Amino acid sequence: MPILDTKRTSLTFDKIEANAGLKIAIKKNRPDIIAEIRESGLKGRGGAGFPTGVKWNLAAAIKSDEKYVIANADEGEPGTFKDRLILMNYPDLVFEGMTIGGLAIGAQYGILYLRGEYSFMLDNLNYVLERRRTHNLLGAKILGKDDFNFDIVIRLGSGAYVCGEETALIESLEGHRGEPRNRPPFPVDTGLKNKPSIVNNIETLAWAACIMSKSATWFKSFGTEKTPGLKLFSISGDCENPGIYEFPMGIAVEYLLKESGAVDVKAVQVGGASGQCLPPHEFSRIIGYEDVSTGGAVIIFGKQRDMLDVAENFLEFFVGESCGQCTPCREGNPKLLEGVKMLKEGRCSMGYLRELISLGQTMQIAAKCGLGQSSPNAFLSIVRNFPNEVMGRTNHKVR
Fold this sequence. Notes:
The protein has helices at 20-25, 30-40, 52-61, 82-89, 91-105, 122-134, 166-173, 202-214, 216-220, 253-259, 307-321, 327-344, 350-366, 370-374, 377-385, 387-391, and strands at residues 7-8, 68-73, 109-114, 151-156, 197-201, 230-237, 243-248, 265-270, 276-278, 297-302. It is an alpha/beta fold. It has 3 domains: 7-216, NADH-ubiquinone oxidoreductase 51kDa subunit (Rossmann fold, 3-Layer(aba) Sandwich); 230-302, Ubiquitin-like (UB roll), CATH 3.10.20; 307-391, de novo design (two linked rop proteins) (Up-down Bundle), CATH 1.20.1440.230. It has a 6-stranded mixed β-sheet. Strands 4-3-2-5 form a 4-stranded parallel β-sheet, with helices on both faces. Helix 2 runs antiparallel to helix 3 (52-61) and helix 13 crosses helix 15. The longest helix has 18 residues, at 327-344. It is globular. Residues 1-7 have low confidence and may be disordered.
């Protein structure tokens, strides 16, 4: 099944020797493996940006009879499809990264949590796992190391967006409703079955394998000081060449637009539905955790698009996908959606618009999980960055 009938740039993953990173890691002690990942500056490629080496070190420091490595393949963010490509074209690299993570933290078990809509990959992924077992890359005494036993299984999600959040994912794995947990405690000490667990994005694990193969110094030679390394981007929308692109972190938004053949651009949504909507005068901003962070989704909107239509579309998604556990997200998103519809119909006053903005800002602080906190982002950035399209639709009444 093809990813997209679109452009795809040459990827670094094509040039990495199979299992070279694992063969290097197997000869190192655990602190040295973690030190290499930490030194690389690799941060979570799912969007949160937590330092991978720090996460692994925290889990490694906990003494436990069981530990888990969990690969988050619940790619549900609108506009994101780079993990799908990785799983279809480079599954060995992901499983290698999971195995290195297991070696680093002292885990015996790995679980790939696969988005329900990606069930078509299941047979091939299981075939790859079985092949790795045959070649002693999984199972008992991996590559002859007497004290390293590690295996991986695949578990399917059921299409819930909220399970992209790591604690909701763990709840789902345990057979419960996918709802975020209160934190602390964190998964690194109290994760799956209350055991230390690391949850990493698919792309993060693939880069971890590359780093062990090529070194932290190699990875840091790309990107910026604060956001080193390479990144895959899912570019879609109003452009000539949508598809998967690989770029160093720290590139400008306008460079992404040029490479994808986008012209007459009104706005760019960086980070999917939960990201922020940038106007043309901000296209010089850079992609990185020191400026515009993203899990990789870039959606381009041409001059013909109505930005209130964009806000309405994203809010309809969040209303449908909210787990309903916390009041700010459960009640706030429907109110924001109602407000956008009122704006489109000319029934929203400036006073009520200010209340909607305040509600969105409250949600960013008070929602229980990162997904709920980010759900107002598109609405708030559209109101801020496209005032003519928004303010011009109010009915100019005080209330």
